[in-house]
Specification:
The protein is globular. It is α/β, with parallel strands linked by helices. The chain has two domains: about 5-40 and about 275-355, Aspartate Aminotransferase, domain 1; about 45-270, Type I PLP-dependent aspartate aminotransferase-like (Major domain) (Aspartate Aminotransferase, domain 2, 3-Layer(aba) Sandwich), CATH 3.40.640.10. The chain contains twelve helices and twelve strands. It has helices at about 45-55, 70-80, 95-105, 120-130, 145-155, 175-185, 240-245, 255-270, 270-275, 275-295, 315-325, 345-355, and strands spanning about 30, 90, 110-115, 130-135, 160-165, 190-195, 215-220, 235, 295-300, 305-310, 325, 335-340. Helix 1 packs antiparallel against helix 8 (about 255-270) and helix 2 (about 70-80) packs parallel to helix 8 (about 255-270). The termini are far apart. A seven-stranded mixed beta sheet has the order 2-8-7-6-5-3-4, sandwiched between helices. Bound molecules: pyridoxal-5'-phosphate. Pyridoxal-5'-phosphate binds near residues 168, 224 and 229. Pyridoxal-5'-phosphate binds next to helix 3.
Length: about 350
C-alpha cells in the first residue's frame, strides 16, 4: 500500500495538522513520566477484585447497569461531604468524564478556558468537540491570583473553565479563594480537576464549595493515588441536575460490567488501596530536596510529581536519563522537567542519575 496520512482522508478540517496525545510508553525499568502510582495494587485487593470480576462475568451476556448505581454509591461514600449517588457521575477515566462535560456544556462555537501551563489534554478535549481553547496566564511560580483570575475569566467569557488542582504539570496547589473568584466571574461551568487530591490529603479540595454552586464540578480519578490507571475509572461530584445533563451525551452502557465490578471492589478497600500515598508523598519531598541540593529550582507540589527548573537542555537531560533506563517528562517548558515520585528504589535511582548528570 502507498503511504497515506490521515490528512489525505476527508477528515474534519479542524483536525488537520494536529497531533494526538501520547507520552512515550517504552518499557523501561524506571517509568516516572505519567504520574502513575508505581506501586502495584496490594495482593489482598487483587484477590477480591478477581472474585468480583468473575462474578460479573457470569452475567456479562446482559448489558451492565446503565446507571452504575452501586459504583456511584461507593464514590459518594468515599467523598463524604453529604454527597449521595445522585451527585456522582463516572466514566472510563476522568478524561472521559471531562469529555462528557465538554459534549454537554462546550461544543461548536463555545469557549473553554484554563490557566496555562496546565494539563495537556484540556485543549485536545476542547478541540475534539469543536470548541475554542483559550489559555489564561499564571504568575512567576505558576500560582494564580484570585483577582487576576477573575479578571481573565470575565474577559474570556468562557462556557467551561477547567481548573487543575493541584495543577499538572507544575504541582501548584489551588487556593479555594481562586475557585470562588472564578465561579463568581462566570456564568459558565467551573470544573475543578482534582486528579491528585489524595496527595494533598484533601487539603484545599473544592468539595465543600459544591453546596449552593450548581455550576461547580469536582472531577476525580482512580488512576493516580488508587493505583488503578489501567482500569480506567474517573468520576465527578456535582449537583444532580448537572449529572442529568451528562446522561444526554454518554453512550449507552458506557461503563462495562467488568469495570464497574473492579471499581466497586477496589473502593471497598479504599484504605488499603491508598496506603502507599504517604510513602509517595515522602518520596516526592525527598526528590524535591535532592534536586534542590543539586542546585535545581523546585516548585512546591501538592501532587505525586515534582517540576524543576534550571536544566540548561531538557531534551538532552531527558535522553541521558532515558539511556539509563529512567523515563521522566519533558513538558515543553524551557529549562524545566517533570518527574513522578516512585518507590524508594526508583526515586533513589533517579536522584543518583541526576547527581551523575549534573555538572
Ligand atoms: C492523570 C490526570 C488525569 C487522569 O486521567 P484518567 O483519564 O482518569 O486516567 C486527569 N486530570 C489530570 C490533570 C491528570 O494529570
Amino acid at each position: 500500500m502507498t503511504s497515506l496520512s490521515f490528512e489525505d482522508l476527508p477528515v474534519r478540517d479542524d483536525l488537520r495538522g494536529q497531533s494526538p496525545y501520547g507520552a512515550p510508553q517504552a518499557p523501561v525499568p524506571v517509568a516516572l513520566n505519567v504520574n502513575e502510582n508505581t506501586h502495584p495494587v496490594p495482593d489482598e485487593v487483587v484477590a477480591d477484585v478477581v472474585a468480583a470480576v468473575a462474578e460479573a462475568l457470569r452475567g456479562v451476556n446482559r448489558y451492565p447497569d446503565r446507571e452504575f448505581t452501586e459504583l456511584r454509591e461507593g464514590f459518594a461514600r468515599y467523598l463524604g461531604h453529604g454527597l449521595d449517588a445522585s451527585n456522582i457521575w463516572a466514566a472510563n477515566g476522568s478524561n472521559e468524564v471531562l469529555q462528557h462535560i465538554m459534549q454537554a456544556f462546550a461544543g461548536p462555537g463555545r469557549t473553554v478556558f484554563g490557566f496555562a501551563p496546565t494539563y495537556s489534554m484540556y485543549p485536545l478535549l476542547a478541540r475534539g468537540v469543536g470548541s475554542d481553547w483559550v489559555a489564561g496566564t499564571r504568575g512567576e511560580a505558576f500560582e494564580i491570583d484570585p483577582a487576576d483570575a477573575a479578571a481573565q475569566v470575565r474577559e474570556a467569557r468562557p462556557d467551561v473553565v477547567l481548573l487543575c488542582a493541584p495543577n499538572n504539570p507544575t504541582g501548584t496547589p489551588l487556593p479555594r479563594d481562586v475557585i470562588e473568584a472564578v465561579y463568581d466571574a462566570t456564568d459558565g461551568v467551573v470544573v475543578v480537576d482534582e486528579a491528585y487530591a489524595e496527595f494533598s490529603r484533601g487539603a484545599g479540595s473544592a468539595l465543600p464549595l459544591l453546596e449552593g454552586r450548581e455550576r461547580l464540578v469536582v472531577s476525580r480519578t482512580m488512576s493516580k493515588a488508587f493505583a488503578y490507571a489501567g482500569a480506567r475509572v474517573g468520576y465527578l461530584a456535582a449537583h444532580p441536575a448537572f449529572v442529568d445533563a451528562l446522561r444526554l451525551v454518554r453512550l449507552p452502557y458506557h461503563l462495562s460490567a467488568l469495570t464497574q465490578a473492579a471499581a466497586v471492589a477496589a473502593l471497598r478497600h479504599a484504605e488499603t488501596m491508598l496506603r502507599t500515598v504517604d510513602d509517595i508523598v515522602a518520596q516526592r519531598d525527598r526528590i524535591a530536596a535532592g534536586l534542590a541540593d543539586l542546585g535545581y529550582a523546585v516548585y512546591p507540589s501538592g501532587a505525586n510529581f515534582v517540576l524543576f527548573a534550571g536544566v540548561p537542555d531538557p531534551r538532552a537531560m531527558f535522553s541521558a536519563l532515558r539511556e539509563r533506563g529512567i523515563l521522566i517528562r519533558d513538558i515543553g517548558i524551557p529549562g524545566h522537567l517533570r518527574v513522578t515520585a516512585g518507590t524508594v528504589e526508583e526515586s533513589t535511582l533517579f536522584l543518583e542519575a541526576m547527581a551523575d548528570l549534573t555538572p
